[in-house]
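WARN retry 2 of 3 for item q-0093 after timeout on previous attempt; input resubmitted unchanged.
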Amino acid sequence: MRTISRLAVPALLAFPTFAAAQDAAPEWDFYGQLNLGIISVDNGTGSETALIDNDNSNSRVGLTFRQGLANGGQFRFNFETAIGLTGSAAINGDDNDLDVDYNRRELRKLEIVYQTATIGTFSFGQGGIATDGSGEVDFSGTGVAAYSGITDVAGSQSFALNDGTISGTTIGNAFSSFDGGRRFRIRYDSPTYNGFGFAISAGQEVLASDNDNEYYDFGLSYDKDYGDYKVAARLGHSIRDSDEALTVASAAILHEPTGLSFALAGGQSREADTDYVYAKAGLQRDWVSFGRTYLSADYYVGSDFAFAGSDSTSVGLAVVQKVDAYNVELYATYRTFDLDGGGSNFDDVDVTFVGARWKF
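OK item q-0093 returned
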């Protein structure tokens, strides 16, 4: 029997149960978002345009139950799932129609959480592992349009060679952010002390039929305000299926009076001997009365992802405009993907994406 499966039943039975606090009524929160846009992809040989879900932050619904406990802690249950619309990472030049194709991999969260009053938080079920978000610290406000996970837009698109031949190499093969994601796991998060916190998790992939890898993750976090400056940093280390070790980190700073921000992320895989660096600059201002405006420019460079000796680079621009009265963000982004090395000449892939996210 698999390791994590053996831990699941004892962990669930050991999960603490306490009486509800007398003055704490249970809380139910139903939430979600729709995030659709029009994407245009040009791989040098042809172009295509499609209405698509935005995989940077896909359309989803969720439900959270909260109950305060007599011991000062809190019990939570969280269910969250994507809707199953065709996503921007799936566009590939073949069938790019906006369809609903729901399957079990759309499940994002199905977890119970016990937040203690003093010693930290324990989570069990499908949810973020300890390195989830380790490569994504960012104060720019443009994450819905552009962030370090650049393959969420057009990741299935293949590069074309200069002679017009479509290669077998996709954007997803040539770029990665190594971020942790979500798995079925047991997780512990410490209380924060002077801005520092840590998390540890052990989990397994249970939603993908062709993947039963185990994941053991450790993450450090830091969040602190220094006068006009907001500072955050993350460091994560992941061991996957006992033979692949990944390290990923990110840091960001925001100067609140000017709205200027900068973020830096990077990661390395020891087994594959691949690595990357991602840098992003942002500016946010209240130029219009109905909501804040966010601008950003970013640059990504990676080594040996597509094949030994390959160089992957990407440049992106993004703008996000909030419409506060309707909980809407309007956005537009442009990104170019470039792949070099191996004696082959690849055309760049240019992607333009405009859309809107409505949260409810």
